[in-house]
Amino acid sequence: MTEITRDVVVIGAGPAGTAAANTLQEARLSVAVLEARDRVGGRTWTNTVDGAWLELGGQWISPDQTALLETIEDLGLETYSRYREGESVYIGREGEAVRFTGDIFPVAPETEKTMVALIEKLDTMVAQVDPDRVWEAPDAEALDKISFEAWLREQTSDQEVIDNIGLFIGAMMLTKPPHAFSMLQALQMAASAGSFTDLVDADFILDKRVVGGMQSVSQGLAARLGDDVFLEQPVRFLEWSDNGVVARADGMTVRARHAILAHAPVLYSRISFEPPLPRRQQQLHQHLSMGLVIKVHAVYERPFWREQGLSGTAFSPYELAHEAYDNTNHGDERGTLVAFVSDRLADGVFELSADERREKILDSLSHYYGPEAKNPLVYYESDWGTEEWTRGAYAASFDLGGLARYQKDVRTPVGPIHFACSDIAGAGFQHVDGAIRMGRTVAAEIAAEIIAERKESR
């Protein structure tokens, strides 16, 4: 059993962990990063499947994600824009595929009017929410006691409005049905992106991709850490006191002054803490849960939808695949579509055999793009719910009443133990940008504390 000593041990080598470790090294502190997987990147993962290069995890960048953009530039990586030329497709309650441009779905005039008014109302409410301090928002407790779906039903009786507005936050972002999370959680999700309007604008929120894949961000940061990144080292025990921590992994032990848990909150329970975490943390972590979504990759000989004048962007709250996009790789002659099947619909297709599931999902894509969508060269499903060290996607969110009650303590250190991940970010919540922000912030706080301690001891 290898035993080493460092100033800080970071548990998790995703964007948060690698960003934190780099910040600590820049402050001339020693660090060890312990990663349970056999790779870095966390919920970002670029891999080749059946000869096709695929982004299995998080991949998109929006213009407001400045921490991520700065990191990409610093690493010398390049970005490229998502293909968006041509018309989008919307399938309404009657099952008819309608082409459109712009952000508002092609619905009946009264439905459109109500949707626009609701989006404006949500923008007004979001403007009063600090995503880092949601519990201070006006009527926070009341808004946290009502589900997003129930709130929508208080605003309108138009079911298509309810279905579409619910789609934006539920299936597309939190990957939970809108009755399962609060109105306050919906406002935080929108506030983390700047506004509800930004959140529903696919050209904004899904603006660019990284040449070489989003995982290359963590890989680049990890490369700078050299031999201080240790793979296949899940931490099983974490002893802590005012004097520091002892992290015991499968093949090594790290003694350090501080620890950063840089992974999803749903995995905190995989570590045995000695002594146990305080009551507050034990409780709040039980009110955070992951969503569920299947990310579907379909690779074709060519991007045939472009020949039809389609951008590849498609939406419908009434389809099995509720959203889809042109995900063709930079410089690739083949065409790739990426589609998503969320929450309860994902439950249903997982009851089917793999062949039946593939058939149903591709049939849903054909409703947007035509029969050619049924015959990809490569088909693959990213199912993060089966990943041992993730257990869902895209990130964790609170149940009803949990956000106003617990958010102020999600980042509160427990002695020498600190928390950093996209799930507890404000700006960039659930995104790589939020992970990097959290990693940098926590590392800077630790560095300042250690440096102050050393000055006092001189």
Automatic annotation (TrEMBL):
Residues 16-446 form the Amine oxidase domain. Keywords: Oxidoreductase. PANTHER family: AMINE OXIDASE, AMINE OXIDASE [FLAVIN-CONTAINING] B. InterPro entries: Amino_oxidase, FAD/NAD-bd_sf, Flavin_amine_oxidase, Flavin_MAO. Pfam families: Amino_oxidase. Its cofactor is FAD. This is NAD(P)/FAD-dependent oxidoreductase. Belongs to the flavin monoamine oxidase family. Transmembrane segments: none annotated.
